[in-house]
């Protein structure tokens, strides 16, 4: 018996649909912000700027897209669940208190949480990253530990960077950073680890064992 989802419950869907569910909400948020950023809305006697209105719409949209992803594929990663929970909490606080600072702090909390979890695993001599990503890129245990340590530091760095950006720059610059900057940074990080993947990839290790024989 295992706690993993049975293979029969995991369903493949069109990759374009999956990408739309994964990245669609943040792109909708970005476009909606550009359209509404200069508008003020009066609701129940309280004035809300466009950022707060877009944040209020983003929360149910992300819930719906995550729910659709789970319904169609039969699985949702722990990282997606954690992200959704923090969006609901910090986005909800921004809307409730009419204060955009809470939603801007959300990426900081996400990266501190992920970095902290990886760090906790490292203190226990384990790579929690391996449990999440092993199926996507099989590595030797040494490789997982190195990658986990690097990713932990990277996440802490992103948390600090997000704090610097939202505290010192305009909301519009932060939205661009949140929509594109963070995604590019994560992509760049994994691209920069190509040497590690080559060195500790299980397929490479097996290939060298075969050639030695």
TrEMBL record:
Q: Write down the superkingdom of origin.
A: Bacteria
Q: Which family does it belong to?
A: Belongs to the YciB family.
- State the name under which the record lists this protein: Inner membrane-spanning protein YciB
Entry's InterPro entries?
Answer: YciB
Kindly list the organism's lineage: Bacteria, Pseudomonadati, Pseudomonadota, Alphaproteobacteria, Rhodobacterales
Q: Does the keyword Mitochondrion apply?
A: no
Q: Could you confirm whether the keyword Cell inner membrane appears in this record?
A: yes
Signal peptide stretch: none
Q: Give the location in the cell.
A: Cell inner membrane
The main location is: membrane
List all membrane-crossing ranges.
16-36, 48-73, 79-97, 109-131, 143-161, 173-191
Q: Which Pfam families match?
A: IspA (PF04279)
Task: Give the record's GO CC terms.
Answer: plasma membrane
Q: According to its UniProt entry, what is the function of this protein?
A: Plays a role in cell envelope biogenesis, maintenance of cell envelope integrity and membrane homeostasis.
Bilayer topology: Multi-pass membrane protein
Biological source species: Pseudosulfitobacter pseudonitzschiae
**Keywords annotated in UniProt:** Cell inner membrane, Cell membrane, Membrane, Transmembrane, Transmembrane helix
Q: Which PANTHER family match?
A: INNER MEMBRANE-SPANNING PROTEIN YCIB (PTHR36917:SF1), INTRACELLULAR SEPTATION PROTEIN A-RELATED (PTHR36917)
């Amino acid at each position: 018996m295992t706690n993993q989802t049975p293979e029969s419950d995991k369903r493949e869907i069109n990759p374009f649909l999956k990408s739309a569910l994964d990245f669609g909400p943040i792109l909708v948020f970005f476009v909606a912000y550009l359209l509404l950023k200069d508008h003020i809305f009066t609701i129940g006697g309280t004035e809300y700027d466009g950022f707060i209105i877009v944040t209020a719409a983003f929360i149910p949209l992300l819930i719906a897209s995550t729910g659709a992803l789970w319904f169609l594929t039969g699985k949702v990663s722990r990282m997606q669940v954690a992200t959704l929970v923090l969006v609901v909490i910090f986005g909800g606080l921004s809307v409730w208190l009419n204060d955009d600072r809470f939603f801007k702090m959300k990426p900081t909390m996400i990266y501190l949480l992920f970095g902290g979890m990886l760090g906790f695993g490292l203190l226990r001599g384990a790579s929690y990253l391996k449990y999440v990503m092993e199926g996507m890129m099989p590595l030797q245990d040494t490789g997982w530990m190195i990658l986990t340590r690097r990713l932990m530091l990277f996440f802490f760095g992103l948390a600090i960077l997000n704090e610097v950006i939202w505290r010192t720059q305009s909301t519009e610059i932060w939205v661009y950073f949140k929509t594109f900057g963070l995604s590019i940074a994560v992509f760049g990080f994994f691209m920069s680890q190509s040497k590690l993947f080559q060195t500790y990839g299980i397929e490479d290790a097996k290939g060298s064992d075969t050639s030695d024989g």
